[in-house]
Design brief:
858 residues, alpha+beta, 5-stranded mixed β-sheet, 5-stranded antiparallel β-sheet, 27 strands
């Protein structure tokens, strides 16, 4: 059932008597309409209200109304703004005139056609109530949107004649009435009413303005669309004096005048807004690519994303940068990481934040706190590439941390750093989903113009985009979404990929038309777009199924890892594609990465070969490894390099005394001692084959290598120490929890339980009761003696009656319940609880009192 159908049903359900309050209006709704309200405004269900009166009170609070207004699209908001300057209550015809009229005629047929749906949306969200002949905007919304002294409404209209003249002397009002050509009255109230009637009468108002000087009409033209306030001197000019004398400008403060609302509406030909926007701006297609090209480009970028995250965490494998005292990563460490990844700093910040959001990166929590990979990183590495990508993409979609803010300043003028506080924006997940859903609604391969996407988002949530700040927060989030989706491989060349579409789920694959029913069905197809209702929240199983579908579409597009490289005579190896993990890990130890891209170039150096030997490999192992994994013969220079480094590797032995060097070849030690560059090592010969040093073993190793030797460290037992990089891991860490944008949308189970509780509580508070010895006041718990309570309970068991009880639980919380007692024994009553819709047992000593419901009640 559409919102418009529910609205018509709600109005029809009121019967002949119109509801006198919002609570009565809600009481006339069926469960489907109440569920729609709670789904659209989830803050109303936290906690579950006791009855419909409390629900109506909560729906009219300022915080809740502001949240509801922020979630309206531009046309629904314009409809609410029009009602705020209309009469209270207002007939539908007056609202239609404020939205779409032009001097009494419907000048905007599209707005007139879509207005019923916008009004239905306001009714559904309990911002408007009452039948079409008595439409009422809730008071809080009217206070927020209607003009107040010194503050015009969003429509640009000022106060009414009655409001503007409330502090004016009766004599001044009578003088204005006389100058305007109206007969004098006996009191100020009737004079104001006469002036209001004049300004509201199109024919008489037109005749009055026909006598106005041209300069006076120019003043009105400047004020008519707002702001309606102007400044005047103590001796106003003739063009202003003419307007002041006839009440077309009314003083509101010394030196300030205002154009009254009735006069402005006449000049506007009855319209509340200069431009109404009943339809969302269309998305403009900037380019189009074949879907296969889009998917292939996105898949290539997805593989690059995996490689970048893996390279980042490998670079921090032995413990990454230190955590700042205030939290986060220093700018110097960000620059170093960007250089290591060969990307700009903002892009490096995005990859770091993405790894953090996916739970692959965290601080270790030690005294010297540093960032490092988490144990989840090891599990992630074992997954197939497509599944690893879906983990990253799913984390990105749900994350509220916003890397685009990095480098800016917070409200206290503190710099926002990577992994630091202050980066959460609760609207980020909604904006990401909405942007990608808009892309999913375009033909496959279509690339939208970014400006049209931003314009669409501003129409859908105008209050969230038109803050008093100089920037558009949702627009910035949308821009970052488009760039981040391209980096991550969700889009390719600006168009949504097939695996990105699958990741959004069925709602994005088949976006709801959300077309207006009734008269709106006559509109052309391109006129039937409207902001869709909030979707049902997806369960974990649905999200997992979407991830599986996305991985299945992405997997065939990812390149197969290679098991070979191409060795070249210039001591380089070319990997023509991604390498299998064991090969990539060993080659990363044996050679240094020289360049990355479609093909990765590795360079062999004495230092890289020594690193492989230090890791426990022998020269024969390295030769066998290269022979097995090279599609080209092993070049002779490379073989010579390995043999030369291996021949000298371990010839010298360094151990811990402070440190010592031992060598079976005395001439080598003689050479070291004779070299002046060895002086900082403070060497002293202890024996023909042993030399002691005054520095630690690590410094001694580095010093001897600087002299051109290839020493190896040894243990206390004389064995060669194998030095492998120690993979530092944090303790188990959970990914950061997104900061929600208000309460989450309730699922069906919670909605059903809440509706049962509200209906039962409303029954308890409104059902007529049989007269008792101590009738309770409305809203109070019933009070009866223990004997009366027991007797009434036992009688209800025999007659099958329904009782209204007051109950206080073990925590001291009081509530009202409607029960049908089934059994009373042992100090307990077992009854069917209409509030919980189940059989429950209550201790009788916690029942404060009991009252019988009238016979016609359930």
């Amino acid at each position: 059932m559409t919102p418009e159908e529910r609205s018509r049903k709600e109005v029809a359900g009121t019967g002949a008597a119109a509801p006198r309050s919002l609570a009565e209006s809600l009481r006339a709704r069926d469960d489907a309409a109440l569920a729609a309200l709670l789904r659209a405004r989830p803050d109303l269900i936290t906690p579950v209200p006791t009855d419909l009166t409390q629900l109506a009170t909560r729906a009219a609070t300022r915080a809740s109304v502001v949240r509801a207004l922020e979630r309206l699209d531009r046309f629904a908001l314009q409809t609410a703004e029009a009602l705020a300057v209309a009469a209270d209550p207002a007939p539908y015809e007056e609202l239609l005139g404020l939205i779409a009229s032009d001097g009494g005629a419907a000048a905007d047929p599209v707005a007139a056609e879509i207005l019923p749906r916008a009004l239905a949306t306001l009714r559904e969200q309990a911002l408007v109530w009452g039948p079409d002949d008595r439409l009422r905007l809730v008071r809080t919304a009217r206070e927020l949107l209607a003009p107040s002294p010194g503050h015009p409404s969003p429509t640009g209209l000022g106060p009414t004649v009655a409001e503007a003249t409330s502090g004016m002397s009766p004599g001044r009002i009578q003088k204005i009435v006389a100058t305007a050509g109206l007969p004098s009255t006996h009191d100020a109230v009737s004079a104001v009413a006469a002036l209001t009637a004049l300004f509201s009468d199109r024919a008489r108002m037109a005749a009055l303005l026909a006598t106005a000087p041209a300069e006076s009409l120019e003043v009105l033209d400047r004020l008519v669309w707002g702001p309606p306030y102007g400044q005047v001197t103590a001796d106003p000019a003739a063009r202003l004096r003419w307007l002041l004398d006839r009440g077309l400008l009314l003083p509101t403060a010394p030196g300030t005048v205002v154009l009254p609302r009735e006069a402005a509406l006449h000049l506007r030909r009855g319209r509340a807004h200069r431009h109404t926007e009943p339809l969302p701006p269309a998305l403009v297609t900037a380019a189009a690519h074949p879907p296969q090209t889009v998917d292939a480009t996105a898949a290539g970028q997805a593989y690059t994303a995996l490689a970048t995250v893996e390279e980042l965490l490998k670079d921090w494998d032995e413990g990454g940068p230190a955590v700042l005292r205030a939290g986060g990563l220093s700018l110097r460490d960000l620059k170093r990481t960007a250089v290591a990844l060969d990307v700009p700093e903002p892009v490096a910040a995005f990859w770091i934040e993405l790894a953090y959001a996916a739970g692959l990166l965290a601080s270790d929590g030690e005294a010297d706190e540093r960032y490092a990979a988490t144990p989840a990183y090891e599990t992630w590495l074992e997954l197939p590439p497509a599944e690893r990508w879906t983990r990253l993409a799913t984390a990105w979609l749900a994350a509220t941390r916003t890397p685009g803010l990095i480098g800016g300043r917070d409200a206290k003028d503190r710099s926002l750093s990577v992994l630091g506080p202050g980066l959460d924006r609760s609207a980020a997940p909604e904006v990401r989903h909405r942007v990608l859903t808009l892309l999913a609604g375009l033909p496959e391969g279509a690339v939208p113009a970014p400006d049209s996407v931003l314009a669409r988002l501003r129409w859908e949530r105008p209050l969230r985009g038109d803050r008093a700040t100089a920037e558009d927060p949702r627009g910035r989030l949308a821009e970052w979404t488009l760039s981040e989706a391209e980096l991550l491989g969700v889009t390719g060349r600006g168009a949504l990929s097939a695996h990105g579409r699958a990741l959004l789920g069925e709602a994005a694959e088949h976006p709801p038309a959300a077309e207006p029913s009734g008269p709106g069905d006559k509109l052309p197809v391109h006129h039937r777009h409207h902001l869709p209702a909030p979707p049902e929240p997806r369960t974990e199983a649905e999200r997992a199924a979407a991830a599986v579908r996305a991985a299945g579409l992405l997997a065939p597009l990812l390149p197969e890892p290679l098991d070979h490289v191409l060795l070249q005579a210039d001591l380089t190896a070319v990997a023509p594609g991604p390498l299998q993990r064991p090969l990539a890990e060993l080659l990363g130890v044996l050679a240094d990465v020289e360049s990355k891209g479609g093909a990765t170039v590795y360079r062999f150096t004495p230092g890289s070969v020594r690193r492989a030997l230090d890791a426990g490999s022998s020269a024969s192992d390295l030769h066998a490894f290269l022979t097995a994994h090279s599609r080209t013969p092993v070049p002779q220079p490379l073989s010579y390099l390995i043999d030369d480094v291996a021949r000298r590797h371990g010839h010298l032995r360094v151990g811990a005394a402070s440190a010592y060097v031992r060598c079976d070849d005395e001439s080598v030690l003689d050479e070291i001692l004779a070299d002046r560059r060895s002086a900082p090592l403070r060497l002293r010969r202890l024996a023909p084959t042993v030399v002691a040093a005054g520095v630690d073993p690590v410094a001694l190793l580095e010093g001897l290598r600087g002299l051109g030797f290839a020493p190896a460290a040894e243990s206390a037992e004389g064995d060669v120490l194998i030095t492998r990089a120690h993979a530092h891991r944090t303790p188990h860490r959970t990914p950061p929890e997104p900061v929600p944008d208000g309460p989450p949308t309730p699922d069906a189970t919670l909605l059903n339980a809440a509706l049962r509780a509200v209906r039962a509580g409303d029954l308890a508070s409104t059902a007529p009761r049989k007269p008792g010895p101590e009738p309770a006041a409305d809203g109070d718990l019933p009070r009866t003696t223990s004997a009366d309570t027991l007797a009434t309970m036992q009688a209800a068991v025999l007659t099958g009656g329904t009782l209204w009880i007051g109950y206080v639980n073990a925590e001291g919380t009081a509530s009202q319940r409607v029960i049908a007692p089934l059994r009373v024994e042992g100090g307990f009553v077992t009854a069917y609880d209409h509030t919980a819709d189940e059989v429950r047992t209550y201790p009788l000593h916690r029942v404060t009192g009991v009252a019988e419901l009238a016979d016609d009640q359930p």
